[in-house]
Amino acid sequence: MPNVHVPTVLRPRVGGASTVEVPGASLREVFDAIEARHPGFGESIVEDGELRRFVNVFVDDEDVRYLDGLDTEVSAGTDVVILPAVAGGR
Amino acid sequence: MEIPHEAREAMIAHARFCFPEEACGLFAMDDADLVTMVYALTNTEHSPVAYTVDPTEHFRAMRHAERNGWRLGGVFHSHTHTAAYPSNTDVARALEPEWVYTLVSLQDPDRPEVRSYRITDGNISEIEMVVTESPH
Q1: CA distance linking residue B1 with residue B109, whole number of Å
Q2: Is the pLDDT of residue B135 over 90?
C-alpha cells in the first residue's frame, strides 16, 4: 500500500500519526481512503477536486503538479509526501 | 539555537541578493539545535511584500537534511523595509510549531538585523540565537 507522510499540521486530523498506509491506485483514491478513515482530512488537501493552493504533494520525490495531479498513479510502496507551502508576507 | 557566524551571514547575503524582493530559505539543524546548513531558496512570489518557498526546492532541502542526519529546523525570510518581527501574515501561515522562524531585516541596509522566533497557535516568542565560530 502507498505510504503517506503527514505533516505536523495535519496529524491531528489522522489521529496523530506521522504516516498512514492506505490502499489506492491513484493519489485521489489514496486521499479518499484516508478521508473514509478520518473524516475531515480530505478538505484540508483537496478543494473543488483539485489540490489546495498551499498544499504540495510529492510522489516518489516528484511534485505531482508536474505529474498527473490527483490522478498520479501510485502503487504498493509508493512514498507520498504532503508538504504545506512555506509562506508569509507583511 | 546556535548558528555559525557564516550561516547567519549567508542569510543576510541572500536577503541582499534578492532585494528589493523578499528573500527566503530554509535551514537544517542537528540534534543539539545547531544550524548545520542554510538553503538559500527561490521566492516564487518574486514580491517585496510576500514569499512562498519554491516547493520543489523545499522538498530537495528536506531530503538533503535527512540524508545528513539533520532535520529542517526552520525558515528564514527578509523584511525589506520593516523590523525583524513576524508580520500578521507570517503568523497566520506559520504551520510548524517546532520550527524556528527567522527574520532578516534590511530596514537599515548597513545594519541588518536577524532575529528568531517560535510561532505556536498564533503566539510569537523570541528565541536566543547564539552565534558561534564556524565548525569547519
Answers
A1: 25
A2: no
- The pTM (predicted TM-score) of the whole model is 0.93
User: Residue A8 and residue B95: Cβ atoms within 8 Å?
Assistant: yes
ipTM of this complex? 0.91
Residues of A in contact with B77 (CB under 8 A): 88
Check if the beta carbon of residue B134 is closer than 8 Å to that of residue B36: no
> Cα separation of B38 and A51, whole Å?
29
The residue type of A23 is P
pLDDT tens digits, one per residue of A54-85: 999 999 999 999 999 999 999 999 999 999 99
Q: Does A89 touch chain B (CB under 8 A)?
A: yes
Non-local CB neighbours of B18 within 8 Å, separated by 6+ positions = B43, B78
> Which chain B residues are Cβ-neighbours of A7 within 8 angstroms?
95-96
Size of interface A-B (CB pairs under 8 A): 67
